[in-house]
Amino acid sequence: MSNDRISWEKYFMNIAREVATRSTCDRKHIGAVVARDKTILSTGYNGSIRGLPHCDEVGHEMIDGHCIRTTHAEANAIAQAAKNGVRVDEAEIFVTASPCYTCFKLIANSGIKTIYYDEFYRDERILKHAKEAGIELVHLG
Q1: What is the tens place of the pLDDT at every residue in 73-100?
Q2: How far apart are CA 43 and CA 40, in angstroms?
Q3: Which residues are catalytically annotated?
């Protein structure tokens, strides 16, 4: 019997890609999955504040070339875990694009120890600070 199963890392990243299809900001579709011990703890995608109109309904809220109407996928995944009383300390996060600096800080302060990402997106500061904070950054792309 051959073992054609994909790795856990690829499995969770594939799920993050599917989660990204729920994104409501058409500028960039991002998905995130928080997992620990081969178990999904929470997911998130970029979208507006719960209950408020989404970009794909009312347009973008742009400041300095960034849409600020959306909450990022990583922040939504961590918020979903918090809302449901799920501990993310010592977990891993799988994100379809590397986190922005703000999301990186949120990930670090939540206790997540490994960030897997598909494409590198914009912010080089996370490379330096991940090393300083003892957070592993892993490019799966």
Answers
A1: 999 999 999 999 999 999 999 999 999 9
A2: 8
A3: 74
